[in-house]
Amino acid sequence: MYLSSETFSQTTELINLDTVKAERFDTGKMWTFEFPPTEYFKEAYGFTPDKEWFEHVQLATLKFANYCSASFVSEDGLIMTNHHCARESVTEIMSDENDFHKDGFIAWDLSDEIPVPGLFVEQCVGIEDVTEEIYLTLETAKSDSERLAIESEKIIEIESRYQNDEETFAKVTPLYFGGKYSLYFYKRYNDVRLVFAPESQAGYFGGDYDNFTYPRYNLDCSFFRVYDNEGKPLKVDHYFKWSEKGAEPGELVFVPGNPGSTSRLNTVAQLEYARDYTYPQTIQLVDSFIEFLEGIMKEDPEASNYLNDQLLNYNNSKKAYSGMLEGLRNPVLMQRKRDFENGLREKIQSNDELNKKYGTIWTEIENVVFEMKELSNEQVALSNDSFDSPDYFLIASQLIPIANEFELLKTDTSIIYTDKDLKESIDLLIPDDFDYDRNKELLKNKIDILYEKFGDAEFINKFTDGKKGDDAVEDILSRTILTSPEKMYELVKEGSDSLLNSGDPFIEFIQYSDQRNELISIRMDEISMKEMTSNQKLGEALFEVYGTSIPPDATFTLRLSDGIVKGFAYNGTEAPSITTFYGMLDRYYSFDGEFPWDLSERWLNVPYEFDFSTPFNFVSTNDVVGGNSGSPIINKNAEIVGVAFDGNIQSLPGDFIYDPEVNRSVGVHSAGMLEAIKDLYQFEKLAEELLDGQLNE
């Protein structure tokens, strides 16, 4: 059972972490098609798919644009993906007269299917192992930077041997950090037209509250059609037939798709850096974007028409990153990662040849991470645009370019920039509701942070005049011009040199921090190069020890995940493996029909033949992450039993570790999709095509 960090803080003393061991599938089940684990499938399920099965599944599965997955579901180019994957496309083709987010979209005839500008899908038509060729070239490298440059040049050379245009191309993707290299051949289809999308309230029922949760009740599906170069529905040989019955509890199911990225092969030191630095900073940045968008939408409600998609994406990201961070703060999960790492190190160190090649990898990475931490701490301390920084730093950073621009305009008579324009620009820097008291507190806190990080460094003493606490705040504010628009105006009028050499504490601090941050960025690039080289060696070591018994991290390339339709323990009870449409009504009435659990009239006044007891959503132990959205869920007969659209909240640590006890993929059931399409939307033409596998004109 997955426990929150708060729960663990109360029970850690009851857990002997020394007894916690790595488990077989901690690195996940995102198997590559070039190295399918057929023996494992036979051992676990008594099922041994043949070469034709894998080829069929590969060719029926698609990338949807550059962010989701999809699949062919009829011989006439019909493809299935998620509603949330289609959201941007739906927005793209809407007009003032047609609000498809509110009303949904149905193309009753082929002529009604609307092309989506810029939308494409990609089919992986071939895979080739090019590891040996790249390794032979890398042997000539004499330094880390040269190794990376040679790798990049070699990849470009390999890709350039093949046709690369709007319809076909080849792409080399490193696996296991470069322990293996695969060359993927793609066919791109650029004429993609919308066929069906439900209302957004049905596709994203429950909104951000229900996102990454289960039990769930979402019609998160949509259908498009690929057209050929003659403007006709594309004829395909490989598509998934539709299972009318759909997924059943305990059934073996597979998810072919394109998972985006994971960090499961990273070292513990790298994961700790992500826990302490990367994710907290990323969440803070996402929060600022959300606050910015919500502010615009509050001032201009009409803006929600084009900003809502962005806001939904940022809220999704925040919840995902927060879940990943909570997982990294879970001592049991981290101990499993340590045990896996220790096991690999022991295997390397017990073999003289491997130890000579790879024995120093972890020390190299730890040294890189240590320096990254030091530089990150310095960057945070010097930052002037975070929530905990006083606005005076932002004012200073904006005033300097205003002064530089005004200086340039003195010599460029073609541009008219009056004193009035300058005054207005400066007045905007200090709004009428400027909170002086709050900024005093923020400045005091910033000074404490600077002293804690840098001690009595020269630039700190210059900024504070050697003072601390309230004394430093009062002194700085007495020496700055940034509290007075009039003083700023007069100094800028004198010229940018006068401003930069004015001795203003905030102006001097910004100049120092900008210069220092530029040097930090250069050094970060240098040590990132070292980390990439060490990661390549780590990947080689992993592959030498484990081979393909563990899958590589996700790379937004074609993978296959196996799993079982299975519920899980949660909230002191049990989550069912399958939900029904009745659950959607329960959520609606439990929240008095309030957003985001409101429903359209279509859902509240259903046709007589619509059956609320039909399976709607379901969970399985398949290993999925971002990028898998829209992936088909198939049975061993390669029939559609659902479409993957989410994971439960316990799946979020799946970025760095997969836990089959609680990690679940959430999908829309094939029976539920069919019931809604046929009996609720009464789109019988689409229902017939799904069941027959072809258009019936």
What would you say this structure looks like, in words?
The protein has three domains: 27-120 and 190-261 and 555-692, Thrombin, subunit H, CATH 2.40.10.120; 124-188; 268-516, no CATH class. Helix content is 48%, strand content 15%. The chain is built from 26 helices and 21 strands. Strand 8 and strand 9 form a beta hairpin. The longest helix has 42 residues, at 505-546. The protein is globular, with a radius of gyration of 29 Å.
Brief rundown of the structure:
This protein is 48% helix and 15% strand.
User: Quick one: biggest sheet?
Assistant: 10 strands, antiparallel
Approximately what portion of the residues adopt beta-strand conformation? Answer: 5-15%
Number of helix segments?
26
Rounded to the nearest angstrom, the distance between the terminal CA atoms is 52 Å
The low-confidence parts are 1-11
In the CATH hierarchy, what is the class of the largest domain? Mainly Beta
Secondary-structure-derived class: alpha+beta
Strand tally: 21
Overall average residue pLDDT = 93
Q: How many individual domains?
A: 3
CATH topology of the largest domain: Thrombin, subunit H
> Nearest-angstrom radius of gyration?
29 Å
Q: Which of globular, elongated, flat, extended, rod-shaped describes the shape?
A: globular
Q: What is the CATH-assigned architecture of the largest domain?
A: Beta Barrel
The helix content is 40-55%
